[in-house]
Design goal:
Blueprint: E1 18-24, H1 28-48, E2 51-58, E3 75-77, H2 80-85, E4 91-94, H3 99-111, E5 115-118, H4 121-137, E6 142-143, H5 154-161, E7 167-173, H6 176-188, H7 192-202, H8 210-213, H9 216-230, E8 232-233, H10 249-257, E9 260-270, E10 276-286, E11 298-305, E12 309-316, H11 320-340, E13 354-355, E14 365-374, H12 380-390, E15 395-399, E16 409-419, H13 420-431, E17 436-444
Parallel strand pairs: 1-2, 1-4, 2-3, 4-5, 5-6, 8-13
Antiparallel strand pairs: 7-9, 7-11, 9-10, 11-12, 14-16, 14-17, 15-16
Helix pairs in contact: 1-11, 3-4, 4-9, 6-7, 12-13
The structure holds NADP nicotinamide-adenine-dinucleotide phosphate.
NADP nicotinamide-adenine-dinucleotide phosphate (NAP) binds near residues 60 and 120.
Length: about 450
Amino acid sequence: MTPTPRIGFAKPEPQQRTLGLGVIGLGTVGTGTLKVLAEHQKEIQRRLGCNLQLKVICSRSVHKQDLSWLDKPVKITSDWKKVVGDPEVHIIVELVGVLATARDIAFATMAAGKHLVTANKQLVAQYGVELVERSRTHNVGLGIEACVAGGTPVLHAVREGLAGENFTAVYGILNGTTNYILTEMERRGCSFAEVLAEAQQKGYAEPDPTFDVEGYDASYKIAILAMMCFGQAVKVADIPVQGITRIDQVDFAYAHRLNHTLRLIAGARRRTSNRLEIFVRPMMIPTASRLAGVKGATNGILLVGNKGGNTSITGRGAGGEATGVAVLSDVVQIARSIAAGGSSLTPFGYEDWHPSRIATPDENVVATYLRLVVRDRPGILGRVCAILGRHRINIDSVLQEPDCEKKRLPFVMTLEPTAEKYITKALKEISRLPFLAEPPLLLPFAEMP
Ligand SMILES: NC(=O)c1ccc[n+]([C@@H]2O[C@H](COP(=O)([O-])OP(=O)(O)OC[C@H]3O[C@@H](n4cnc5c(N)ncnc54)[C@H](OP(=O)(O)O)[C@@H]3O)[C@@H](O)[C@H]2O)c1
């Protein structure tokens, strides 16, 4: 895609050393952002050398809210268009969560020549290329740090700190809810359902957890991260997604026997063909790998570069104030650019985008963990092995935990690296075997440091 030439942001007059901020959306992140801003105002001012002032806040129910905790009086409105139209506002922070509204706010903000900061991963994953084009057309800044890994500044690290690197892969634990569930299952030997129910009670998981546990949340985040690492316009719909609902305690028992553990990994890898392999799936990862140490609701990202090697970054992936720090970091960066009259912001780190070239999962060559739960009877192993052999899949090992119920007997096969298309075909046949008590579970072994 040919980039629109960039020109500098309108430089404020020397007497205009105050930049006005408008915040739309006063939920978890909106409130967290305002609280951090109130507490860190002086420090931020020292960093900026100009005055950043909150001018207006907005949510539909703002007039019913107790805002006594705000340190200074500000304008309030329930109509986001008034924030966009406010002449005192230069930077707008969009934190409404609803995709269609967020898109309308984003487009209107840019059309009004104002700078935008958003935490909406769906907005950025789906409309990222368009947002960048519009930000160029209207010559405004676009901040997206809070969209991936909440308070962990991975996008800044990729865009700025590692701008000289050529990435070969990025792997992330990008969803705190699923990582909390998996690591609690591992730590306490509980089932998925037990830990999920408890997480919902404590407010760590949504009443409808589908978006998190089925991997969709992580797919938006890896789409953004992959765009940032590889400069390709990745489409979320092209990302194969598998959630964690089928993971059982017994999988951790087998994983440990194999010196591995299980995590929901959102990853993107550059193939030698220059195509991207991109996925969200639970994976067996070596216990010595950096991401194995990422526990609870923490997020972790491992960036693999062909010169600098491995860089990992971990931190808070959600929460009002932690995410508020990421939002404000974007505000600070935009404010610095405005003050300098510059245009240093390239939100995805690339001026020249390539269309995405995604490899199909079939082309992946992976070693896999195959867990079968069967009603025990003679000849089971022979039939499974015959199918695998027919598809030219080599078995590496067969494992069985002792003392399991004969009616629901789990056993595991580890398979040598094979193209996934052969494994998928074999799995279809295995799924039809009459002695299976539940569908087979296939998990790839991740090759990661
Ligand atoms: N929660 C996290 O830890 C986290 C972390 C990283 C990123 N994010 C992202 O940050 C964004 C905000 O998340 P959140 O958790 O803060 O959401 P939230 O708690 O549901 O808050 C959303 C806010 O937007 C307001 N709102 C909704 N529609 C509006 C409209 N048409 N006009 C004005 N205000 C409107 C809501 O209040 P009214 O109903 O009163 O309008 C509410 O104050 C989302 O995109 C989310 O994905 C969240």
